[in-house]
Specification:
This protein is mainly α. Helices cover 73% and strands 0% of the residues. α1 packs antiparallel against α2.
């Protein structure tokens, strides 16, 4: 069984992979606009690219930190849950021909 640190690392890695694809696509489309040098569009493109990259990095860090904070309390509560008693399931009824 994985510990909290290993799971947090896996989740942050997964968040990085998910965010990377979107950031790469957006930066790839905004880079020509930023390099073009337009007075109005170039600064906006740089700001959008910076926001995308910083939000992707923050998502990775926040995912790992929040998991490390929340996971121990969730595991503690799950361990305290009562075990459900074995309740027999009702028998399945055979369909009667001619009824719908």
């Amino acid at each position: 069984m994985l510990g909290v640190d290993e799971v947090a690392l896996c989740l942050s890695h997964r968040a990085a992979l998910d965010a990377r694809a979107g950031v790469q696509a957006a930066v790839g489309e905004l880079l020509p606009i930023a390099i073009q040098g337009s007075v109005m569009h170039a600064p906006l493109a740089w700001v959008i690219m910076g926001g995308l990259v910083s939000s992707a990095l923050l998502a990775c860090i926040v995912t790992a930190v929040m998991y490390k904070l929340i996971a121990p309390t969730v595991v503690h509560h799950v361990e305290r849950l009562p075990v459900a008693s074995a309740v027999p399931m009702p028998a399945a009824r055979e369909p009667v021909l001619g009824t719908y």
